[in-house]
């Protein structure tokens, strides 16, 4: 009589690392599959044996009872083996699906990083190309009509030595300093209405060139062109056109003179004679020891 | 005597019929369980085939994405000026 041989399972060992555990599980799985294969041959052998016994043996009832017991045990053992094998197959499949999902996540991460790199490269390329092609930039304030008037008034107020005819009514913000200008003749914005004067004195922040008081804070750049109200480019008049300021001339007198200039335009007419007197005084400064008199004269001037 | 022999035969026939029904019942139980085992195997086969097909599809998609990534990385490696600029 063929009896069901129990599957020989290896003794459970304490596996330290994952490789040993997985190897142990794979060995168990292969043993279970081998038992299932052997179970088929054992069932065929048992069927032949019971057939011969039933035909040859006289005690047929005992053979039938034995056959029943064997069939029950064989069925239970088969179900046990199939359950074990199917569980292991499901476990292995789920493990592989999890591994594939993890690999998909990693590939998605790599794709996202690659896409980010591609976007960065595109952005850098666009930045480089845009920096190569330098588009002309126009001042925003010149777009509006009011701003343009303010700018023109500011230029007029700043370059008070230039004639008002140089600033055209059009949109040419550069009053040409080489225009016909007579030395010693100054333009005190006589054409500018008083309303505009008040207007430009209201907004000193937008046009920092607007002068409200002294000339001391204004930098002296002889050859600079006063075209834009940029603070980095001080708009100073051309020295050929401007009133001559001598090095020894104290600036306090100029700052004190400015309000008077605004109030009284007649001083423009007296300026050449005063400058002559000042020149004479300066020329005679080295010769004589009358510096004190000169300073007093300048203070009075 | 004949009546007793007839009764004995009837009893034996009855016992034999009962034993036969018991055997039939046993065989039906065995066949039912074998059928359940067969159904389980068929269901297990279908489930396993479905899982394997899904896994195969995922692996195919993953293989294509990896090939695309390999080509992109190879292109980027072949043109190092992209990274130097």
Automatic annotation (TrEMBL), chain A:
Compositional bias per record (Basic and acidic residues), positions renumbered to this chain: 259-272
Sequence ranges of Low complexity compositional bias: 217-241
Region (Disordered): 156-274
Coiled-coil ranges per UniProt: none
Bias (Polar residues): 163-179
PANTHER family in the record: ABL INTERACTOR FAMILY MEMBER, PROTEIN ABIL3
Family: Belongs to the ABI family.
Protein name per its UniProtKB record: Uncharacterized protein
Organism name: Ficus carica (Common fig)
TrEMBL record, chain B:
Subcellular location: Cytoplasm, Cytoskeleton
Keywords annotated in UniProt: Coiled coil, Cytoplasm, Cytoskeleton
Coiled coil: 45-79
Record's keyword annotation contains Cell division: no
Entry keyword annotation includes Phosphoprotein: no
UniProt-listed InterPro entries: BRICK1 (IPR033378)
Span of the signal peptide: none
Gene Ontology cellular component terms for the protein in this record: cytoskeleton; plasma membrane; SCAR complex
GO biological process: actin filament organization; cell motility; regulation of actin polymerization or depolymerization; trichome morphogenesis
Similarity comment: Belongs to the BRK1 family.
Protein's name in the database: Protein BRICK 1
Species annotation: Ficus carica
Lineage: Eukaryota, Viridiplantae, Streptophyta, Embryophyta, Tracheophyta
């Amino acid at each position: 009589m063929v009896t069901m041989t129990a599957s020989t399972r290896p003794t459970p060992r304490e596996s330290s690392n994952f490789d040993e555990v997985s190897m142990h599980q794979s060995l168990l799985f292969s043993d279970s599959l081998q038992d299932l294969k052997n179970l088929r041959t054992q069932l065929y052998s048992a069927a032949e044996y019971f057939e011969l016994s039933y035909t040859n043996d006289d005690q047929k009832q005992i053979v039938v009872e034995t056959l029943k017991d064997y069939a029950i045990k064989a069925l239970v053992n088969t179900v046990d083996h199939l359950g074990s094998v199917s569980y292991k197959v499901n476990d292995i499949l789920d493990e592989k699906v999890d591994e594939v999902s993890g690999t998909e996540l990693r590939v998605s991460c790599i794709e996202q990083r690659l896409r980010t790199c591609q976007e960065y490269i595109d952005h850098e390329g666009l930045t480089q190309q845009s920096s190569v092609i330098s588009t002309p930039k126009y001042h925003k304030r010149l777009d509006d009509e009011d701003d343009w008037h303010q700018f023109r008034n500011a230029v007029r107020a700043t370059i008070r030595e230039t004639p008002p005819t140089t600033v055209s009514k059009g949109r040419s913000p550069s009053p040409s300093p080489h225009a016909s200008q007579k030395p010693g003749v100054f333009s005190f914005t006589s054409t500018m209405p008083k309303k505009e004067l008040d207007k430009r004195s209201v907004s000193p922040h937008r046009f920092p060139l607007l002068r409200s008081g002294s000339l001391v804070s204004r930098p002296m750049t002889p050859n600079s062109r006063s075209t834009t109200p940029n603070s980095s480019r001080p708009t100073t008049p051309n020295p050929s056109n401007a009133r001559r300021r001598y090095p020894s001339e104290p600036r306090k007198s100029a700052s004190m003179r400015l309000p008077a200039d605004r109030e009284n335009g007649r001083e423009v007419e007296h300026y050449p004679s005063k400058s002559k007197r000042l020149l004479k005084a300066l020329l005679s400064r080295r010769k004589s020891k009358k510096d004190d008199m000169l300073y007093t004269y300048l203070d009075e001037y | 005597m004949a009546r007793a022999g007839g009764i004995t035969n009837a009893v034996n026939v009855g016992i034999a019929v009962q034993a036969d029904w018991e055997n039939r019942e046993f065989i039906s139980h065995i066949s039912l369980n074998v059928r359940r085992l067969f159904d389980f195997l068929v269901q297990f086969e279908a489930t396993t085939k479905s899982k394997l097909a899904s896994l195969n599809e995922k692996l195919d998609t993953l293989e294509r994405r990896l090939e695309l990534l390999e080509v992109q990385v190879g292109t980027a490696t072949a043109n190092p000026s992209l990274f130097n600029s």
